[in-house]
Amino acid sequence: MDGMKIVGELFGAGKMFLPQVVKSARVMKKSVAYLLPFMEEEKNQIENSTARPKFLIATVKGDVHDIGKNIVGVVLACNNYEVIDLGVMVPPDKILEEAKKHNVSIIGLSGLITPSLDEMVHVASEMKRIGLEIPLLIGGATTSSAHTAVKIAPVYDHPVVHVVDASRVVNVVNQLLHPDLHEAYSQKVKEDQKIARENYFNTRAERKLISLEQARENRDPIDWSTTVIDKPSFIGIKVFDEEISLETLVPFIDWTPFFTAWELKGRYPAILESETTGKQARELFADAQKLMKTIITGKLFRTKGVIGIFPANSVRDDIFVYEDENCSKLLTVFHTLRQQIQKQDETEPNYCLADYVAPKESGRVDYIGGFAVTAGHGVEEFAKEFENNQDDYNSIMAKALGDRFAEAFAEYMHYKVRKEYWGYDKNENLSPEDLIREKYRGIRPAAGYPASPDHTEKRALFDLLQVEKNTGITLTEHFAMWPASSVSGLYFAHPKSKYFAVAKINRDQVEDYAKRKEMSVEVVERWLAPNLSYDPLAVSAVR
Fold this sequence. Notes:
Strands 6, 7, 8, 9, 10 and 13 form a 6-stranded antiparallel β-sheet that branches. A 5-stranded parallel β-sheet has the order 2-1-3-4-5, with helices on both faces. It has 3 domains: 50-204, 3-Layer(aba) Sandwich (Rossmann fold), CATH 3.40.50.280; 223-263 and 301-503, Cobalamin-dependent Methionine Synthase, domain 1, CATH 3.10.196; 505-543, no CATH class. The chain has helices spanning 2-12, 18-35, 40-48, 67-78, 92-102, 115-129, 145-152, 166-177, 182-206, 212-217, 246-249, 256-261, 278-298, 379-388, 392-421, 432-436, 457-465, 467-471, 507-517, 521-527, 536-542, and strands at residues 54-59, 82-85, 106-110, 136-139, 160-162, 236-241, 302-315, 318-322, 330-335, 366-377, 474-475, 481-482, 486-491. It is 45% helix and 14% strand. The chain has 21 helices and 13 strands. The mean pLDDT is 94. By secondary structure, it is α/β, with parallel strands linked by helices. InterPro entries: Cbl-bd_cap, Cobalamin-bd, Cobalamin-bd_sf, Met_Synthase/Corrinoid, Met_synthase_B12-bd, Meth_synthase_dom, VitB12-dep_Met_synth_activ_dom, VitB12-dep_Met_synth_activ_sf.
């Protein structure tokens, strides 16, 4: 344990890298597990010890991602904290119940998808309601210091701190729990958050948005009378049930996010030669290759996917999807959102995904595609084997590789769609590097991402492609996909189609969108909370 304390100190000082820390923790866990049966007195001391601060950590309800959470747990354990990990999709009452049961010193909440942000606000308000007086840590890819300051901190009377990554968590927790440092650190956090709130509201006041009608008038101009619309090689659904091998996907892997997950900054392959992180990156990459070989040889991860291509037309900001080219039977409608930010460059459009599908009034039949793929069947089971053997390093590695295979599957399937199944770019000849840099024609935006921020749109896609039946991928109540190593989205073929961020929108678009989706404005505001340019509660009070 003294050795792990040194490891933790070196990591906090930036003198050790995360993979080294997790490997060191593996040695400690295995050693302790081996020695404890022979050390009854010490075992009882450890089990009965109340000296170690208890840290409860959980991925919030409706969210399934846990790589970052697991890393934080390992780092804290290395620094003599007792970590109580509740896992994923944990409801608020469970978090509060376990926090009281174990008398924890601090709670950490993690989440990846945007609906998790509201869930964190709810947990914080519930902590206040039941009278908890302990710090709350917020982390995960979708979280930010601004959201923490504006939305979460105001609903709880005690410190709420956003932590960017695992390298900072120990310093934050140490200060929050240190009797001599707690008060000053907590006060500084509150002062910084007050400034962050002021900056946020000032920026929001300065941000100029235009009306929805003005934004629609400034749509991306496309001459549909001269546009070539490529007819796909088939219409309907194609299912891929474990027939796409993991070996096939390897050339399509983008390794940069893999290193990012391990908090090694830099682009692959340049990161392997980095003066600061190169040695660790090479060791990590070698370990990944070794484990990947085991996974491929044993067929431990199973791929399942489904794609569909259908006739379609846009109707204003919606995309109508039909059964056949007669367009007599409507299968579903995809609802999209339009940028409302006032552009400084008057020639720049207010983008919307629906603009890249021929409008119904053009009299032309266009097409849209959709997909859902996973490499996640088998990932959790494989990772669990390592966890049971006190091996967090390979457990985290397995899940990180599952994510890489899933993204590679999405890249591979998009490639096949462009070249064969839709065939709108049959002569494409790009290197794997160019594919990763998205130098091809067309896009595959995913619901919940900047160009299509509404996660509820996944339901229409899943119903259209019968995703649950064809792939085994399911949706949580907050529309996260399970298995976690899964990807879904739409295919757009138009040469002008591009990725963009919808960013902030006005209430006029929210009302219009709610009407189109046959939802209440209040429900839409909840799902699009990060995109609102206004405070729904303030508007409601005025009304």
